[in-house]
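can u do me a favor
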């Protein structure tokens, strides 16, 4: 299929030519910068691992005094220096003075090529040949990246297979460095990119009272199943809207005291545990708490579903059965962390082993339970 601009020109009976965009001045304080756009309104064009790309190129950018400016998007991408929501003509001014632009196929990437700004374009729901930037052609100005398609793109706003996520972060990062004429090579290989990687979660183990500040975009979980001291538990539930994971019921008196701050209550049970009284369920329901029973043994699920047929009963560790990804030097990134006694851990497996300063993959069942929260990668230690 020909490029869209040629199809439009053919349908309208006109010739293709460069558009004229008059820029509107916008004060940008950075002397040197690159721009990045995230199309959050179209899920199939929304690349989920920009933060990993930024982490890979940040050392070079910092060395060269280059900042990252995000144009648009509902949420700020981790690692950008400045986020701007400006009009199209102001984008034109900002991009025209940018060293490089990165984003999905769309108006800003075509605008970058019009301004002769090097551009890296990501494709998630259409082929590159159909909508690639065409005003500045050639590998020295434009790099177009598309995933290895599962037969073909979806051509829709929502891609059920989220194929854009299959573009490797290291491929994008290397393309940026190449267009910036850097000789640096990215020493990074993606092994697994979890679907829940961008979900920001803080798990608090209430064994002591800590002075912690948690951003509003983070989900807060209280893990009494990992450890608990009653005074600390009540402190956190009184101060945060939270979800609780526990291996025992909260006493009714305490639940009445703090229940207004509990959104969800997950209780681990097995088939031999004592029955939960009916009046406890009525209390939880009256406080608008979502109550769910979790089973550590899969065989207990049907038994407990039969016993509590009005309550949600689920297997606790569905992700543990997914494919394990590990090599000798594998490490990982995550937006989920455990806080206990003023120490931070990147997984329950690390918490269990007391490894608060490690991001090494641990090949244990406890680690693989959270695999969808992890971005697992490998590096060549000799590089």
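np, heres the sequence
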């Amino acid at each position: 299929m020909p490029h869209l601009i040629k199809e439009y020109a053919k349908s309208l009976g006109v010739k293709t030519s460069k558009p004229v965009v008059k820029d509107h001045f916008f004060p940008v304080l950075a002397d040197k910068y690159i721009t990045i756009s995230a199309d959050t309104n179209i899920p199939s064009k929304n690349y989920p691992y920009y933060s990993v790309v930024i982490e890979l190129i940040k050392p070079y950018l910092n060395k060269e005094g280059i900042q990252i400016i995000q144009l648009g998007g509902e949420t700020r991408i981790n690692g950008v220096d400045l986020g701007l929501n400006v009009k199209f003509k102001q984008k034109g001014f900002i991009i025209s003075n940018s060293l490089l632009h990165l984003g999905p196929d769309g108006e800003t990437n075509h605008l970058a090529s019009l301004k002769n700004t090097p551009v890296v374009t990501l494709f998630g729901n259409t082929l590159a040949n159909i909508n690639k930037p065409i005003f500045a052609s050639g590998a020295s100005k434009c790099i177009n990246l598309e995933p290895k398609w599962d037969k073909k793109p979806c051509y829709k706003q929502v891609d059920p297979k989220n194929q854009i996520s299959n573009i490797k972060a290291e491929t994008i990062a290397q393309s940026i460095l190449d267009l910036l004429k850097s000789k640096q090579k990215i020493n990074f290989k993606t092994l697994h990119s979890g679907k829940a990687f961008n979900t920001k979660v803080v798990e608090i183990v209430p064994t002591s009272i800590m002075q912690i500040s948690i951003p509003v975009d983070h989900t807060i979980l209280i893990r009494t199943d990992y450890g608990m001291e009653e005074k600390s538990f009540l402190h956190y539930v009184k101060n945060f809207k939270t979800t609780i994971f526990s291996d025992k019921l909260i006493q009714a008196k305490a639940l009445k005291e703090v229940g207004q701050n509990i959104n969800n209550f997950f209780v681990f049970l097995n088939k031999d545990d004592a029955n939960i009284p009916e009046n406890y369920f009525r209390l939880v329901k009256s406080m608008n708490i979502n109550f769910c029973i979790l089973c550590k043994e899969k065989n207990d699920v049907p038994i407990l579903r039969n016993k509590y047929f009005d309550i949600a009963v689920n297997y606790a560790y569905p992700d543990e059965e997914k494919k394990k990804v590990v090599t000798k030097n594998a490490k990982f990134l995550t937006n989920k962390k455990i806080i206990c006694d003023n120490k931070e851990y990147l997984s329950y497996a690390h918490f269990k082993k007391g490894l608060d300063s490690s991001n090494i993959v641990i090949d244990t069942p406890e680690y693989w339970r959270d695999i969808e929260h992890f971005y697992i990668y490998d590096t060549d230690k000799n590089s």
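The domain at 10-186 is CATH 3.40.50.2000 (Rossmann fold). hope that helps!!
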